[in-house]
Amino acid sequence: MGLRFRTAKRSRSGRRTVGAVLLLIVLAELTGCATTGPTHLYLAGEGAQPIWDRALEDQHDDTLTGLLASEDRVIGVGYEYNTDYIWLRLAPGDTLVAIKRAIREEWYRYELPVEFAGDGERTLDIAVRSFNRMVYAALPEPGLVGKVTRYGKVLPAVRPGGTIRPIGGLAWDQAADQLLVLYADTAEIVAHDRETEVVRRVNLQAAVSPTTLAYDSNRRRFYVPLADAAELGEFDESGRLIERLPWPEGAYAIDAGQRSLVRVF
């Protein structure tokens, strides 16, 4: 009897262990998990051009070719850190594509509702919250941001800060878990907690073209195209211009993210 009792006890313990493992797997699938690594910039534009992968902290630059048709035009880029996906928004803005960077394959393609489609905008930027893989997309209606799950389900749009200012760029601060909005009227960057609550404002101390935004959550750097040259400005968290970087001809949209060495998803 005692032996049977101990065996049963071990079985219950084993079931608890299996249950815990299954729970971790489910959580990993829902949220993703990755180690930190060097930050890269991802740039894209006309379909005839490659997707540029620019290393900021190591020497491993790359280009991804053959993934877009010549008639495609990328108007938004978002990098998903946990899964190493590059999300692309194609003109007029109602097509969303995910590229699995490591194997250079298209993984998702979604046709979005008509309210996502613009009317000739050069950029309608996107950002990805890597924790839950939610894609945030600037809508043509000023101040409005659409939300799309990684499976293509469109959720109700949000209006960060309750404003109707035109949006020039979006990024996600993965460390602080905040939505960053670059406004096209003043080139001001505003950080939002819980998607809509204003918590911080940054004024960039250089003339910029406020059409797209990238943010390095690790080193706390903003990236915005400069207005006076074919260059990309790197700004610190106070908005001070600290470096000028090459801006490839034909590039329209950018994002930044850490290149992880180990991922669980």
Notes on the protein architecture:
The protein is mainly β and 265 residues long. It has two domains: 1-30; 40-264, Methylamine Dehydrogenase, Chain H (7 Propeller), CATH 2.130.10. Helix content is 11%, strand content 44%. It contains one helix and 22 strands. It has one helix at residues 2-31, and strands spanning 33-34, 39-45, 51-55, 62-64, 74-80, 85-90, 95-100, 105-111, 126-129, 134-138, 145-148, 154-158, 167-173, 178-183, 188-193, 197-203, 214-216, 221-225, 231-235, 241-246, 251-258, 263-264. It has a four-stranded antiparallel beta sheet with strand order 4-3-2-21, with no helix packed on it. A four-stranded antiparallel beta sheet has the order 5-6-7-8, with no helix packed on it. Strands 9-10-11-12 form a four-stranded antiparallel beta sheet, with no helix packed on it. A hairpin with a 4-residue loop joins strand 13 and strand 14 (178-183). The radius of gyration is 20 Å and the shape is globular. Residues 1-11 and 17-31 have low confidence and may be disordered.
- Biggest sheet, strands in spatial order? 4-3-2-21
CATH class of the largest domain: Mainly Beta
**DSSP strand count:** 22
> What is the CATH fold-level name of the largest domain?
Methylamine Dehydrogenase, Chain H
Q: Mean pLDDT, nearest integer?
A: 87
